[in-house]
């Protein structure tokens, strides 16, 4: 609660003093986002002796603060956090809490939109999320529910966008197929059948 209150104070100060063009401080904002993600992904919040209601409340409070700050950034500032913040945000969306995932996955679409408006593509975002997803799933994060939510939420957002409908859907399907293969590979990694392991490896490649 103490850390959450502090993070809340930092968020208010960043929005009041360091958001406009003349006073924008990239390093301060960068530090804030890394702090918020580090708080939300710390192991002590995942302990079994926390009730699910208490854990969900803390996680959702922290998530709404991060959302508030990301969505308050204007395009010319937001683009400065792509691709560097894709990995930390991915780590946050992978926390096994359904409501938190529903609230944070839309941040990806916001990033896609931001890069598209700046460069007419979202190549940096796409490359980064594919690279980081590989690392995170291999490290034990991610599950079938995450794959389903990622697919559903991002497709809904992309299909409503005039220019991202087609390329966005292609990207989402690509990531979902990759996730399927990575999850299969992780499951079968310790299988004694070498052919099964090799088959999964080929699929991932």
UniProtKB/TrEMBL annotation:
A Pfam family name for this chain? Answer: TPR_DOCK
Note the superkingdom of the native organism: Eukaryota
User: Annotated Gene Ontology MF terms?
Assistant: guanyl-nucleotide exchange factor activity; small GTPase binding
Signal sequence annotation: none
All residue ranges annotated as the Dedicator of cytokinesis TPR repeats region domain in the record: 1-153
User: Might you report a single GO cellular component term?
Assistant: cytoplasm
Task: Enumerate the Gene Ontology biological process terms.
Answer: cell migration; myoblast fusion; small GTPase-mediated signal transduction
Q: Which PANTHER family match?
A: DEDICATOR OF CYTOKINESIS, DEDICATOR OF CYTOKINESIS PROTEIN 1
Please give the name of this protein. Answer: DOCK1 protein
Classification lineage: Eukaryota, Metazoa, Chordata, Craniata, Vertebrata
Q: Which gene encodes it?
A: Dock1_3
